[in-house]
Structures are given as structure tokens and as C-alpha cells.
Amino acid sequence: MNKHLTHKDLAAYSADTLRQRDRIRIDEHIHECGPCRARYEKLMAAIAPRYQSLKASNDLQERIMRSWREIRNGDVNAEPNGIRSLLVKHRRTAIASAAFAVAGIILIVTIFMQGPLETRRGSMVMNRMDAGVTVNGIPARNGEAVYDASMIRLPEMAIAQLVYDDTIKITLINNNDFSIDNFIIEKALNVKLGLTLRDGMLLSAIHGRQTTIKYEYRTPNARIEPLGTEFLLQTEDGVTLVIMKEGAIKVTHIRSGKSETVPSGRKCIISDSFACMPTTKEDMKIFDDLDKLRNGSYAHLLLPAIYDLKVRAKTGNRDTGDIGKEKNNKKNDIQNEGEDTRNDTIEKQNSRVDRDRERMQQRMEQKKMQMNEMRRNNKTNMNQQMRRGR
To answer: Distance between CA atoms of 283 and 293, rounded to whole angstroms?
Structure first.
């Protein structure tokens, strides 16, 4: 998508009302386009405080729901109440009635988007945070509550940790582009959580215990659906890496729809296809030392290094230097082919020029012969006229 996103696109993306393919398209655009990303963060920073404080009283919610049921069931003769009672009281002008109708619709939509009356919005707490971390473009504070519709960014060599009670702990690490898309807590303490990792790396540790958690992570090319588990998730340049420590997850390739279950003791690389393999003891050390992970001590176990190993495996475990030489040779061959093509083109052009020059010379010769013939004819005619005159 070359053009910038419209306000309608950003609003629909913020409300999570888009189809999956449109959401992916806009998500990729926000990740790649700085101006649109800044507009989205500004929008989130503006509406989040208002949305967080939005709450209707139980009486008003009941009146709205009762009116909604009457309208849905076609009971137009019922005693006015709820929204319609408000409209009866404010019939002074058509504008007033329209305004109250719109207000009622907004309240209904708000209630339905929040789910049943026993649900509420959840928030996570920024428990550990290094300098440079931002939430919706604003510097984050330690202990700050982070709600849904929040975009979190980390600079290089930084860590930020999000926690919810003793149930959920998400540790973001280095150059991270992460968002909490939705976070709902039901009355029975069931948690529904939607998260997106556009770029970077995180450690996820979520255990149900007394709480039932239904959640998923999204990356540019995969959807991860775990339940009570601990793992590392990384995405870079359209490639996703999952290293399992505990539990199991279901990974779905977004474009193909193909799914793969990854249990503990396995790791999986998701690019155009799946490449899963057993983990090593060294892989498990990643979960024990955050500082080493942040400082790059385990870079050889992560993207892009591990993806290069996958490429080597496909090429028969040949040495990386040999593969590099082959790539250079192929590049040189392509360049040579291009040079030959250019030379052929130049030769054809030169041949065409030579042919044109020959044709031009032939025309000039013909024209010269015609002029000479005309001169001879004119001279002959003049001589004949002179003789007749004598």
C-alpha cells in the first residue's frame, strides 16, 4: 500500500473491526510507514484516557438493554423507557432527538463491544523498565497501568516487563514494537488477551492457576495460540521464531492457514513454511539470564543467525563461505549476462545505424544522379532551341 492510511482506516484498526486480511495489511503499513505510525500513536494517546474512564451505571445499562430488546422484537407499543423515554423528553427539535438517538446507539455499541455486563477491561503493570521505553509515544513510568489499544516501543539494549497479578508476565527485549490489542476480564476471572509483536523479541510466561486465560500473539506472518505456557517469541524481517520451554502452543501461518503444534522441548521457524526441530540445553539457558539475552550473548541461537542455519540445512550443510561464494558467482553470472545483453543491444543499434547510413548514402547518390540527368537534359534542350533560332 503506497498511500497513507485514512482516518477511517486508523479508527477501524483501533476498534479491531477489520477483516483479517485488512488488519494484516494495515498492521504492516503502520510498521513500515513512520507518519502513519505517529498518527496512530497520537490517536491512541488521545482516546485511551477517555476510553478507560467510560463506564455506564447499572441502571442506565439496564434501561438501554430493555429498549434495545423492545426495538429488536418490534414492540413499538410498549411504554416508553430507556432510550425512547429520553427521546420523548427531548422532542423540542429534530436535532435534539437525533443527538439522543446517536448517544443511545453509542452506549449500546459500547456495552456490546465490552461484552456481557459482568466483564471489565483489564490492565497490565509496567513492572521493570529501562530508559527510552514509550507507551503510545509517551515515555513510560515504572508501575504505570497499561491498557488495551496501547503501543509499546523499546530502544536497543532495553528491557520492559508487563505483569498481571502473578498470572501473566511478558518481558520485552531490545528494539521492540509491541501492542496490547484487547484485554478483557470476565466476572469469573476468565481473561481474554490479544497481543501483537510486529518486530523484536519477548519472553512469555502465562500460567492459568486459578484463572482461565484465553489469549493469542500475532506476528507479521503467524498467529500463536498458547494455553498455560512459557516460551520465547521473536520476529524479524517477516520470519518468526518460537522456542518452547514449557507447555505447548498452536502456531498458524497467516497466509497459508497451515497450523503446527509446538510442544515443550521444540523450536519452530516460520517463514514461507514451518521448520521445527528439538531444542538444546543451550537454548534453555536463554530463559535464565535476561542480561545476557539483552546483551546479545545468545544471538547465535536467535534470528537471523538460526534462520541462516536453516538455509544451510536446505543446501546440504555446506560451509557458509562456500554458500557465500556461490551467491557471489551467481551474482557475477547475472551481471555478465546483463553485460552480454547490453553488448548485443549496442551491436544491434550500431548495425541499425550502419544500415541507415548506407540507405542515406544510396538516396544521396540517386538524388545526385537525378540532378546530373536533369542538368544534361536542360543543356540539350537549350542547345536545340539555339539551333532553331539560327
So the answer is: 11
Contact 129, 155 (CB under 8 A): no
- Going from the C-alpha of 64 to that of each of 89, 90, 105, 198, the distances in angstroms are 16, 17, 9, 39
At 127, list the grid cell.
Answer: 513492572
Residue 232's nearest CA partner among 182, 194, 282, 271 is 282
Q: Return the sign of the alpha-carbon dihedral for residues 296, 300, 303, 304.
A: positive
Handedness of CA 274, 279, 280, 284 (dihedral sign): positive
The pLDDT tens digits for 156-196 are: 999 999 998 878 899 999 999 999 998 888 765 678 889 99
CA distances from 84 to 55, 94, 96, 107 (A): 21, 14, 13, 14
SS3 content of the chain, % helix, strand, coil (to 5): 45, 30, 25
| Helical (H) or strand (E) element with 309 | helix 305-314
User: What is the per-residue pLDDT for 44?
Assistant: 76
123-129 and 191-206 beta bridge pairing: unpaired
End-to-end, the C-alpha distance of the chain in Å comes to: 93
pLDDT score, position 114: 46
Grid cell at residue 357: 547510413
| CB contact burial 36-46 (16+ within 10 A = b; e otherwise) | bbebbbebbbe
3-state secondary structure of 215: strand
For residue 194, the tally of other CB atoms under 10 A from its CB is 17
159/173 Cα distance (integer angstroms): 5
Q: Are 262 and 270 in contact (CB under 8 A)?
A: no
For residues 265 and 247, what is the distance between their CA atoms, to the nearest angstrom? 9
Per the CB < 8 A criterion, the answer to whether 229 and 248 are in contact is yes
Top mean pLDDT of 188-197, 221-230, 268-277 is at 268-277
Q: Is 23 buried (19+), middle (13-18) or exposed (0-12) by CB count in 10 A? A: middle
Which three cell numbers mark 319? 560451509
pLDDT per position as a tens digit, 42-56:
787 776 555 544 555
Which segments within 148-190 are labelled E, that is strand?
A: 150-153, 159-164, 168-185
